[in-house]
Design brief:
The chain is of the alpha+beta class and 150 residues long. It has a 4-stranded mixed sheet, covered by helices on one side. The radius of gyration is 18 Å and the shape is elongated.
């Protein structure tokens, strides 16, 4: 992400330090991660110490300091999903994408994470891709859904 685009996002928030978290969210939404250069630029423009920005970026799980894929895949492994076959769903995603939970593929297409609950237990097992929930999944359906995101 170039400096001009980062500046545009910061300017949209009137260079207010009180908007720091939202600015970081906006940058990550477009770039899929927060680079050191982006954090440095935000600090310069908002006149906030880099250490404070880094603390916030590392404290909240929503932020990533490493590149993420264009499509973020979350597999629920909570109790309701687990007893309905979440392990098979996770295995299918690992096979199709070639990555393990916490990883991003080399093409930056997919990032995979497991979560303890997505709040829709009646739909288990659940896969969430880019915020869209796919419920009552089977391994075959999971592979088919992933093909739609290529």
């Amino acid at each position: 992400m170039d400096i001009d685009r980062i500046d545009q996002i910061i300017d949209r928030h009137q260079c207010e330090a009180s908007s720091l978290i939202q600015i970081l969210l906006d940058i990550q939404s477009e770039n899929h991660w927060l680079s050191k250069e982006a954090l440095t630029r935000v600090g310069e423009k908002l006149q906030v110490p880099f250490t404070r920005i880094q603390h916030i970026a590392t404290f909240y799980k929503a932020f990533s300091l490493v590149p993420k894929g264009r499509h973020e895949v979350h597999i629920c492994v909570g109790t309701a999903c687990h007893v309905r076959g979440a392990t098979r769903i996770l295995d299918t995603v690992k096979d199709v994408t070639g990555i393990m939970p916490g990883e991003t593929d080399m093409d930056l297409k997919f990032s995979l994470e497991t979560v303890n609950c997505l709040g829709c237990c009646a739909l288990g097992p659940v896969v969430e891709i880019d915020g869209k929930v796919h419920g009552k999944m089977s391994p075959g359906e999971t592979a088919d859904v992933l093909k739609n995101y290529e």
